[in-house]
């Protein structure tokens, strides 16, 4: 937020079932809501975190974090992970820049 505070928003609250949730639709809705906030000057940056699967039948578990800032920087950080009785183990990650999605409409990125 402009005052430096951080606000957390969940598309699906933690612990709620994901049955029948269209992940792509939810992700696009979150990006659109954040974009509207960015255009109104209400946010300075955003981080969208979600599980990603390369295909529906994939055995790979991966988490993506899309980071964007007012100045136009947009980068996705991704890492595969494994779940076990001992918790979560994150593996080596990767990062890649992309054209802004949230801050695209405010003159800092491509529309």
Describe the structure.
The structure is a single chain. The chain has a domain of 63 residues: Roll (Nuclear Transport Factor 2, Chain: A). It is 15% helix and 34% strand. A 4-stranded antiparallel beta sheet has the order 1-2-3-4, covered by helices on one side. The chain is globular and about 45 Å long.
Considering the chains and any ligands shown, give keywords for the structure.
single chain; 111 residues; alpha+beta; Nuclear Transport Factor 2, Chain: A; four-stranded antiparallel sheet; disordered C terminus
The global form is globular
Read across the widest sheet, the strand sequence of neighbours is: 1-2-3-4
* CATH architecture descriptor text of the domain at 44-106: Roll
Model regions low in confidence, pLDDT < 50 over at least 5 residues:
107-111
| Biggest sheet statistics | 4 strands, antiparallel
**Number of beta strands:** 4
What is the CATH first-level class name of the domain at 44-106?
Alpha Beta
Judged by helices, strands and strand pairing, the structural class is alpha+beta
Instruction: Give the C-alpha Rg.
Output: 15 Å
Quote the beta fraction: 25-35%
Roughly what is the average pLDDT, rounded to an integer?
87
Distance between the termini: 23 Å
